[in-house]
Design goal:
Blueprint (H helix, E strand, L loop, with lengths): L6 H9 L8 E4 L1 H14 L3 H14 L2 E4 L6 H11 L4 E6 L3 E5 L14 E2 L4 E7 L8 E8 L2 E4 L8 E6 L11 H7 L6 E10 L2 E7 L4 E4 L2 E4 H9 L6
Parallel strand pairs: 1-2, 2-3
Antiparallel strand pairs: 3-4, 4-5, 6-7, 6-9, 7-8, 9-10, 10-11, 12-13
Helix pairs in contact: 1-2, 2-4
Length: 235
């Protein structure tokens, strides 16, 4: 456990021969960016780069990114440096990890957070207060076995709801906040806008701040940022 993040210490730990060795590494995109900046400054010789890549490919089984959108240039550069295609996942304090990309590298889609983990149920919904017996319309519902999409609502964005044993029961001593966080039938409201397409789930952003309505369309600020960061002149 490090008291604070240090790119130098992380690289030293990756390359260390001490046991037990790291074989799984999880971080947010910003940390991967900082590690690559350190790499560019200190691993300039081809033999050092080859050694680093060989160690990462041989010793580290899995590298994971989460908690924020992963820019495509970060994913691609990290793969060039370490040989690892980052596995993207989705989770939050209240639910733990809920969605994850597949372990099979070839099946991962950049920008997607994959499918529900074992024991997790998810729904993509839109509010419908007038609907009898339910306060929302279900666009898609899934678990580890697959996702069923409501006919006519294919690739329809909506709020992600989560249910399962990993979901927290309540906010401590905050009954009203807890009540607002769950639907009447017990699903946790994440507050994130999501879409199901190409067999996987895609996070569009926080519904309250990242979704922009313009010209009759809902635009994901995260998706705009993702494309901007892919431009070679933007760092």
């Amino acid at each position: 456990m490090m008291p604070e993040f240090s790119a130098q210490q992380v690289w030293e730990k990756f390359l260390s021969s001490e046991t037990p060795r790291i074989n799984v590494f999880m971080a947010v995109p910003t940390i991967y960016t900082k590690l690559m900046e350190y790499y560019d400054r200190h691993f300039t010789q081809p033999h050092a780069q080859d050694f680093l890549r060989a160690v990462c490919e041989e010793k580290i089984r899995l590298m994971v990114s989460g908690s924020a959108a992963l820019p495509l240039p970060v994913l691609e550069k990290w793969k060039n440096i370490t040989g690892h295609t980052l596995l993207e996942r989705y989770g939050m304090t209240e639910i733990g990890m809920a969605l994850s990309g597949p372990l099979t590298t070839a099946a991962r889609l950049p920008g997607s957070v994959g499918t529900p983990l074992p024991g997790v149920q998810v729904r993509i919904v839109s509010e419908n207060p007038q609907k009898d017996g339910c306060s929302y319309t279900i666009h898609a519902e899934g678990d580890e076995r697959g996702t069923k999409v409501t006919p006519g609502l294919e690739e329809k964005e909506g709020e992600l709801l989560v249910r399962g044993p990993s979901v927290f029961p309540e906010y401590w001593n905050k009954p009203e906040e807890t009540k607002r966080a769950f639907t009447l039938d017990g699903w946790f409201k994440t507050g994130d806008t999501v879409v199901f397409k190409d067999g996987q789930y895609w996070i569009r952003g926080r519904t309250s701040v990242d979704i922009i309505k313009t010209g009759g369309y809902k635009v994901s600020a995260l998706e705009v940022e993702w494309h901007l960061l892919a431009h070679p002149s933007i760092t």
